Amino acid sequence: MDLDAFSAVHGASWKRLDQLSRAGRLSGAEADELVRLYQEVATQLSTVRSAAPDPGVISHLSQLLARARSAISGSHDPSWSDVSRFFVEALPAALYRVRWWTLGVALSTVAIALVVGVWFVHSPEAQAAVGPPGTLQKIADQAFAQYYVTYDGTSFALQVWTNNAMIAAIAVAFGITGLWPAYMLVQNAVHVGMIGGIMALHDGLDVYFQLLLPHGLLELTAVFVAGGAGLKLFWTVIDPGGRPRSRALAEEGRSLISVALGLVAVLGVSGMVEGFVTPSTVLPWWAKIAIGAVVWLAFWVYVIGLGRPAVRAGATGDVRREDAGDALPLAA
User: Fold this and answer.
1) Per-residue confidence (pLDDT) for residue 331, from 0 to 100
2) 3-state secondary structure string across the chain
């Protein structure tokens, strides 16, 4: 097919469709014309794709049709079905797809924290760099536990939630650099390991784990997910998986936005545990850890129980195909 001749013959129709799509108000005759041209151009796009798949023409016609479709159907108002789809399909699918990245980040973080903690216990120089013996003793005996009771439960939960949600969102958003997630994860691992070393140095590991585990199981998992999602986006730059790099980044980026939004809810739960369960003077330590373990297991039941079947059905966490716009077909 001679694509130049085809474009010359139908160019007037394409221009007219563009004009009608951009018009604010249409008469009845213009609305009918818009629908008719939409159908014609959709057929022409199909012809171009099959006979002369020129990327420029296909992109131009796809944008025309997307704009015309919006003009015909109007803007889409979110409904409860959209909310349901997000929590039942999109979010668990997106979380499930980064599970191995999450596991890798978790194992790396634990390993770094252990190394830092052991090194700190056996390094007088590291201890001196943090502070004199009296300062370390005060951290172990008072400051670490005092941190969880400085504010009332509601204020503390909100403070922790907003801070952690912001960190998680930044880790995902700047994951394409590869630097921010790695820096964030290493910094977090060093901090956890050093505090653990201070507590171990003063026989306070039991207090350390009693205060860390109730909320930390879920909170740290959310951090691992955010870091893993960010690194996955960075890896997409290196290996787009047979897709054009721009398309791969767009698809994975939209999917990981679902992860960032979902982590806001996850960190909200961990913030409630940290604000009301961890500092509780009524609950015994084993009950606090049990509550933390239950919410952590509930998270993974949600991810695996809903995410695995959603991914097998083709879900990725991305928006619907019609909302993402048309894309060039890829050769198998």
Assistant:
1) 41
2) CCHHHHHHHHHHHHHHHHHHHHCCCCCHHHHHHHHHHHHHHHHHHHHHHHHCCCHHHHHHHHHHHHHHHHHHHCCCCCCHHHHHHHHHHHHHHHHHHCHHHHHHHHHHHHHHHHHHHHHHHCCHHHHHHHCCHHHHHHHHHHHHHHHHHCCCHHHHHHHHHHHHHHHHHHHHHCHHHCHHHHHHHHHHHHHHHHHHHHHHHCCCHHHHHHHHHHHHHHHHHHHHHHHHHHHHHHHHHHCCCCCCHHHHHHHHHHHHHHHHHHHHHHHHHHHHHHHHHCCCCCCCHHHHHHHHHHHHHHHHHHHHHHHHHHHHCCCCCCCCHHHHCCCCCCCC
Identify whether residues 118 and 39 lie together within a single domain: no
pLDDT at res. 79: 58
- Same domain, yes or no: 179 and 313: yes
What confidence tier does 247 reach under pLDDT thresholds 50, 70, 90? confident
Query: Taking residues 220-232, what's their average pLDDT?
Result: 90
The domain boundary residue, chosen from 15, 42, 73: 73
Q: Do both 68 and 201 map to the same domain?
A: no
Please write the tens of the pLDDT for every residue from 142-189: 888 787 766 666 766 677 677 677 777 777 777 777 788 888 889 889
**Total domain count for the chain?**
2
Domain containing residue 173: 81-324
